[in-house]
Design a protein that fits this description.
about 350 residues, globular
Length: about 350
């Protein structure tokens, strides 16, 4: 079995069928998160026609490395169901990363590809939360009648009566307005810095995902009151970043946005439109309940923790605790705690 780390891996993804890959695994997407501290890479294990790969962001820990998958979803994916190959490939990757001076790695698995399932013997795999998926492979009428809850349908009708106008912008013409709205929304929610992005991020997003993403906007009398970035591959569509003007929440703008986008995803041939989960694992939180009003289909989101060099990891964590005792209670159970 061959194993390599590369910065160019789309050529391998081309050998995957549509149902076994997604936009989150492309060079274009992972490179969105390249900065002074994170280097996009992909580890590839192959044997004959069988390929298993995992893109990630490498960071330095002194003269060692660690990694985490990019914002959203990732983890190892394979172009085959051959279980012996997958098991051997995961073992080989762990050995190879240890050899290349990696201390540990943090993985956010992909709920629709269900790639956490074949990693449970290779690392610590932990259930994090449920996410919501709309079946957009069925007709728009069926989405409306079988996916959307009745109260949600009423809110969508209300939005239409209120004169709200939806548009899927291929040219991202309203991006500056959206970024301002998104940032204001994150500040209102007191979101972590993790959820804020610089201007370069949006510029690269538009260029990198041309033809595979759009900006969904909802306007009232010409004013942008709600919007979100969406992206998709052949089979899977995703709700990425969203912002809304809270003073218009009673008009059903967010409901109107997601309903129209579900229809847009259907027209583009997307089979599953993934909305993600709530703010946390609490299924009573408002965001999760809002998303559940669009579909009864729940998917499982898992995270993975893997330590390749326990002695080095323990030393790094002990040093961090010594220097940051006040942070241990909040961040101590996170694999990459020493990043805080």
């Amino acid at each position: 079995m061959q194993c390599e780390i590369t910065s160019s891996w789309n050529k391998y993804l081309e050998k995957f069928p549509p149902e076994k890959k997604d936009i989150y695994f492309t060079e274009e997407y992972v490179n969105l998160y390249k900065d002074s501290e994170h280097t996009p890479e992909c580890i590839v294990a192959s044997e004959g026609a069988n390929i298993l790969l995992m893109p990630y962001l490498r960071a330095e820990v002194g003269d060692l490395h660690d990694f985490e998958t990019a914002y959203g979803y990732g983890g190892p994916i394979a172009n085959t169901e051959h279980h012996d190959f997958i098991r051997k490939a995961l073992d080989e990757i762990a050995r190879f990363l240890c050899e290349k001076n990696y201390v540990c790695g943090f993985t956010r698995f992909h709920p629709l590809l269900k790639n956490a399932e074949y990693c449970k013997d290779a690392m610590d795999v932990l259930f994090d939360r449920h996410t919501v998926t709309i079946d957009t492979g069925i007709s728009e009428d069926d989405i409306w009648s079988t996916m959307i809850k009745s109260k949600n349908r009423n809110m969508i009708r209300k939005a239409e009566k209120n004169g709200l106008v939806y548009k899927a912008e291929e040219d991202f013409a309203s991006l500056p307005e959206f970024v301002e709205l998104y940032n204001a929304t994150m500040k209102r929610l007191d979101a972590d810095s993790f959820y804020f992005f610089g201007d370069d991020y949006y510029r690269v997003y538009v260029k990198a995902l041309a033809g595979r993403g759009f900006l969904g906007t909802v306007r009232l009398d010409g004013k942008l009151i709600c919007g979100a970035l969406f992206m998709y591959s052949e089979d899977f569509g995703h709700y990425h970043l969203e912002g809304s003007d809270h003073q218009y929440s009673s008009l059903g703008a967010n409901n109107f946005l997601l309903w129209n986008t579900a229809c847009e995803m259907h027209r583009r041939g997307v089979k599953q439109f993934h909305l993600g989960g709530g703010y946390n694992s609490d299924e009573e939180n408002s965001l999760f309940k809002f998303k559940k009003a669009f579909s009864p289909i729940l998917t499982d989101f898992y995270i993975g923790k893997q330590i390749f060099n326990k002695e080095a990891y323990d030393d790094i964590k002990a040093d961090w605790v010594k220097k940051n005792p006040e942070k241990e209670e909040v961040y101590g159970n996170r694999l990459l705690c020493y990043r805080y």
